[in-house]
Amino acid sequence: MRIDYRWGASNFDPERMRKGAVELVALAPDVVLATTVPIVLALQQVSRTVPIVFAAAIDPVGAGLVVSLARPHGNATGFTMFEYGISAKWLELLKEISPGVKRVAVLREPTVAGIGQLAAMQTAAPSFGVELQPIYFTFDAPESWFRPKLILGGCDVCSIVDSDRDVDFRQF
User: Fold this and answer.
1) Which domains are present in the chain?
2) Among 13, 61, 143, 166, which one is least packed by beta carbons within 10 Å?
3) Side-chain-facing half-sphere of 78: CA atoms under 13 Å
4) What percentage of the chain exceeds 90 in pLDDT?
5) How far apart, in whole angstroms, are the C-alpha atoms of residue 6 and residue 26?
6) Residue 112 — very low, low, confident or very high, per pLDDT cuts 50/70/90?
7) How confident is the model at residue 128 (pLDDT cuts 50, 70, 90)?
8) Are 21 and 39 in contact (CB under 8 A)?
9) How confident is the model at residue 75 (pLDDT cuts 50, 70, 90)?
10) What is the rounded distance in angstroms from the CA atom of residue 14 to the CA atom of residue 169?
């Protein structure tokens, strides 16, 4: 058995991810293990035949990695970061901690985090008497616009939908 690995080479730079994908596919591997949605997408752009297993995709269906979790089709399959229903549980816990919460801002980066988490929260929100305010941002310049929207939106609490990137939102 031969294992070739790449770690942290892309830094979410699309061109570097594409180059890394080309290099890996050129090695003619039996399978590729990938961790993030952007890297799986780069691999899929390079090859639709090399099997890809993703280890912790946030929303593989919403991101277009697979058709469904039960029947992925194509050359990719794998594991989600967590089941979408847990997003609804976050709202339930939020109401237990702070029963007066009425409006919740949900920060999400739509090119990374798929719709699954937000959809689960939207489905559960009415049963908890909560109105959701989705706020979309990009990692390139999040501070440039979502902070004013959060302040002006009149939301009581902010929930952050999971992402492939590590961002310290406390600074905002």
Assistant:
1) 14-80 (3.40.50.2300), 85-171 (3.40.50.2300)
2) 166
3) 27
4) 30
5) 14
6) low
7) very high
8) yes
9) very high
10) 23
Backbone angles phi, psi at 26, to 5 degrees: -65, -25
Query: What is the mean predicted confidence (pLDDT) over 83-94?
Result: 86
Q: Output the six-digit token pair for 168.
A: 């310290």
SS (H, E, C) the chain: CCCCCCCCCCCCCHHHHHHHHHHHHHCCCCCEEECCHHHHHHHHHHCCCCCEEEEEECCCCCCCCCCCCCCCCCCEEEEECCCCHHHHHHHHHHHHHCCCCCEEEEEECCCCCCHHHHHHHHHHHHHHCCEEEEEECCCCCHHHCHHHHHHHCCCCEEEECCCCCCCCHHHC
Identify the CA nearest to 115 among candidates 164, 49, 162: 162
In angstroms, the CA 163 to CA 103 distance is: 22
Instruction: Measure the CA–CA gap between 87 and 159, rounded to whole angstroms.
Output: 10
Tokens of residue 86, six digits = 């847990």
Higher pLDDT, 36 or 138: 36
Averaged pLDDT score across all residues of the chain: 80
